[in-house]
Amino acid sequence: MVIPAVGRWYAVRAGRRADRRATAVSGTVRFQAGERFARGERNAVIAKDLRVSERSVERWRRAWRHGGTAALASAGLPKLPRLTDDRFAELEEELAKGPAEHGWEDQRWTPTRIRALILGRFGLNVSSAAVRRLLHRHGWSWQSPARRALERDEHAVELWKKDVWPQAE
Question: Which residues pair with residue 130 across a beta bridge?
């Protein structure tokens, strides 16, 4: 689903949903690092072979020293999302209607507007940063328009650059 707009907009990318497999894979990498800690391998070698940063390997080694292999297990997701999948589906339906349907003049969905929509529709007060994380988790990304607006008046833009912009600087 793509929601076009004049400014930045959000679009959902097919197949880009968060799942628990990513957590399982990262846990496997940590356990592989733990086996290599036991063999006495250096952090730089482990990081290069497992394709992770040395800083992560250092953090894992510290945890491994204090708690053994059990300390390398994933703690899971930080917390459950406040907006359930069913409610997010409802939100997507509302977003598909467009900003004009919800009282905004232009066709741009911004995090602040989506935040207001979530507050009005579901009664959840979330931050704009939480909205960005929510959209990202469900495969949405911000995008800029690929072309200039048809309504753009090049002559007016040039006059503005010539007259107004120098005064603003």
Answer: none
CA distances for 23 relative to 18, 66, 93, angstroms = 10, 22, 29
- 8-22, 36-50, 67-81, 120-134: which range is least confident on average? 8-22
Q: Is the dihedral of CA 115, 120, 121, 123 positive or negative?
A: positive
Q: State the SS3 of 64-76.
A: HHHHHHHHHCCCC
Sign of CA dihedral 40, 43, 47, 48: negative
The residue to which tokens 């204090």 are assigned: 66
> How long a stretch of residues is the chain?
169
Q: In sequence order, which residues have a C-beta less than 8 Å from that of residue 37 and are 6 or more positions away?
A: 46, 60, 61, 64
Burial of 127 from C-beta contacts in 10 A (0-12 / 13-18 / 19+)? exposed
pLDDT tens sequence across 51-87:
999 999 999 999 999 999 999 988 776 665 678 888 9
Q: How buried is 66 (Cβ within 10 angstroms: 0-12 exposed, 13-18 middle, 19+ buried)?
A: exposed
Q: Which residues are within 8 A (CB) of 45 and not within 5 positions of it... i.e. 6 or more apart?
A: none
State the DSSP code for 41. -
Q: Are strands 140-143 and 9-12 parallel, antiparallel or unpaired?
A: antiparallel
